[in-house]
## 1
Amino acid sequence: MKLYTTAVAPNPRRVSIFLAEKGIDIPVEELNLGNLENLAPDFVAKNPMGRVPMLEMDDGTYLAESLAICRYFEEIQPEPPLFGVGAQNKAEVEMWNRRMEFEVLGMISQCFRNTHPYWEGKIPQVKEHGELCRTTVMQRMEWLDSELADREFIAGDCFTVADITAHTGFALGRIPKIRIAEDQKNLQRWYDDVAARPSVS
Ligand SMILES: N[C@@H](CCC(=O)N[C@@H](CS)C(=O)NCC(=O)O)C(=O)O
């Protein structure tokens, strides 16, 4: 088994944090996205999307999509549970993780890709779309700040994959200058608590 990853990129980071929380150590191969190593023919033959993370299985098959990879490891090593416990809590974690994917990580990623000079000339950019995503995520941050007033983590009182998704998003947000506002004390408290976890720091 081998994980193809890029340490600084947000989706591979989600898997790395997840594995660190589980205490799982597997061989990794680092791909340099700046050098387009993810588009090399031998990698694309394995993952036609040309993206990381990708998990090479012992039977020669491949798993892509960070959440799919995390789910695989949750099944083979359930402790500590990061996708919830029991029917209702698992559904709640699913709900929050999807919200964090669409409303936080996705919005921040689109803002970064569409507004930041790093991507100029590399991908088509629609600045207005990026700015609309920035405005949307700032509204979501107000919402999250109120949600976190009476619970420790995004999906409840336990750290879950939803925290990993959201935190990875906000960490990426520092590049296009999406910052937690000074009066969003609950969101900041959550951010700092997660940042201090050994898996994240
Ligand atoms: N939905 C995929 C997204 C994977 C993805 O977009 N990975 C980025 C790094 S964060 C990548 O490989 N980008 C290279 C490219 O798009 O060429 C997942 O969750 O794993």
Note: The pocket of glutathione is lined by residues 9-11, 33, 38, 50-53, 65-66 (CB under 6 Å).
## 2
Amino acid sequence: MKSNDQIKSKIPVGILGATGSVGQKFIELLAEHPWFEIAAVAASDRSAGKAYRDAAHWFMSKPLPSRIADMTVKACEPDLPCRIVFSGLDASVAGEIETNFAKAGYIVISNSRNHRSDPDVPILVPEVNADHLEIVKTQQNGQGAIITNPNCAATGLVVALKPLLDKFGLSKVNVVTMQAISGAGYPGVASLDIIDNVVPFIGGEEGKLESEPQKILGNYCDGRIEPAQFKVSASCNRVAVTDGHMECVSVKLARKPSANKIITEWKEFRSEPQRLKLPSAPANPLCYFEENNYPQPKLHRLLGDGMTVAIGRLRECPILDYKFVLLSHNTIRGAAGGAILNAELFVAKGGLETRK
Ligand SMILES: NC(=O)c1ccc[n+]([C@@H]2O[C@H](COP(=O)([O-])OP(=O)(O)OC[C@H]3O[C@@H](n4cnc5c(N)ncnc54)[C@H](OP(=O)(O)O)[C@@H]3O)[C@@H](O)[C@H]2O)c1
């Protein structure tokens, strides 16, 4: 197990899809990272060969680091000067490009949906299923590997459900989302479609939210992930919020505890990233608010540097057992920050050494 002190020199990493919404968030979060250093940025042929400052329309709140602005954008070919690549690629191209990189020996840490349902690929959320990382050993990618993170709305949901499943059992989940505009990438949803509006459909989103949580919360045993046996019904909406997905969740538990017992489990929840003191791990993966009008995207999306999932309004549900509201930052916890935490876990567990 590697600790912060044992990472002597920074590990070079590349970013695929570096010009997009998630790619820019990777650059922002990796700029000051204690373990990783950006060695390459890559995107489509439209951007390849240009200086990054000319290829990307930078819209992060922190200034674009000059070292990155001067970098020449590469094509997404597996000849980048690094072992780890973070992928923020458009799903229409991510599948094949990520496979090519893994087969060439790269460790691909992906945000895209393409490989999430592959039986030998983990959908990793280190607070929830750090043990699923073992399954990469069964991948037929030589020294390479593919590790994915969940759909951005599934991430907050599984962190909130983990203590409930472990302590009380879980049989049914109903979730209604209010998802931020940045979840659609850049330029995303046309302003005339979203200002003064709610769009009650996000292509493909409900299917992901109804299937990914069972794999993520499943048991890893004998080289296989056995999905958890609960059902999810999801309704997904796009709302006029820039960052931060809100979700109204109702749950049916196997054993119904008091509301106070649930809140205590959420407040006390800590896991592997906190024990390992991974650089991107929030001190508290979950934060429960007693105020009945919290959490709110504008106020709480940056809790724990965007890595803490905020929860509030736990109350009895007349149809299932309990209902509550959660909020999680979609481009940090649900995308770039979550992927960086995955890479930290992989490195801390000695993954780079075992896949030399
Ligand atoms: N936004 C979120 O909150 C979020 C959360 C979780 C997961 N995701 C997933 O993360 C991925 C990226 O999302 P995004 O929102 O960042 O999308 P985006 O803003 O549209 O960015 C897409 C990136 O893919 C690159 N690309 C497009 N076609 C390419 C090609 N043929 N070859 C190589 N690169 C190509 C683009 O490069 P050019 O600039 O050169 O075109 C750009 O860098 C998607 O799979 C998405 O589902 C997004």
Note: The chain has a mean pLDDT of 96.
